[in-house]
Design brief:
Blueprint (H helix, E strand, L loop, with lengths): L26 E4 L4 E3 L7 E7 L6 H16 L6 E7 L7 H9 L6 E4 L2 H10 L4 E4 L10 E4 L3 E4 L5 E5 L5 H13 L1
Helix pairs in contact: 1-4
Length: 182
């Protein structure tokens, strides 16, 4: 029988810190066509959501909650960059992202890149994504099954916390306020 208080030989005794599990360097193109990296946002918190512009409901809902949180933070929001990273680089070009993120607020940044670039950033943030084409449908008419988590990254680029799908803007703003106060 294995004792619950014991350790398994060869197993790590301490799980990795969360800040080491989510995030990392990226280089993507923003909604204005400018190449951006995570370094461009140092000194500010990044509120990051991964999704796609033709998502029927999940992405717009979470982005609206982000926008609500930014509005609720008022002047404190100057220290936060809300970022939408497209997981559908085949359709979400910079011009498409520009129109899309504009619906959520002037400060929103849309990011995209090559399939390899998007795959790398999705892997760094542990974002699941999978193209779904219904049987008999046009292969270009697809949905993307994906994680719907919003990440808060600190001014140093390190993970601070995450927000589950459909977390209200009020809750996001309250939690971010605590990090801004540190």
């Amino acid at each position: 029988m294995l004792a619950l208080t014991g350790t398994v030989p060869g197993a790590a005794t301490t799980p990795p810190a969360l800040e080491s599990l989510f995030g990392g360097p990226f280089s993507l193109t923003d909604h204005t066509g400018v190449q951006r990296s995570d370094e461009d946002y140092r000194g500010k918190f990044m509120l990051i959501y991964f999704g796609y512009t033709t998502c029927p409901s999940i992405c717009p809902t979470n982005l609206q909650h982000m926008a609500d949180a930014i509005d609720r933070l008022g002047a404190k929001a100057a220290g936060i960059v809300p970022i939408f990273v497209s997981i559908d680089p085949g359709r979400d070009r910079p011009d498409v992202l520009k129109d899309y993120v504009g619906h959520f607020g002037d400060g929103f940044v849309g990011l995209t890149g090559s399939e390899a670039d998007v795959r790398a950033v999705a892997k760094a943030y542990r974002v699941h994504r999978r193209k779904v084409v219904e049987k008999g449908a046009d292969p270009q008419d697809y949905l993307v099954d994906h994680a719907s988590i919003t990440y808060l990254m600190g001014p140093d680029g390190k993970f601070r916390t995450l927000f589950a799908h459909n977390t209200p803007g009020k809750v996001i703003a309250e939690r971010i306020s605590r990090y801004l106060a540190e």
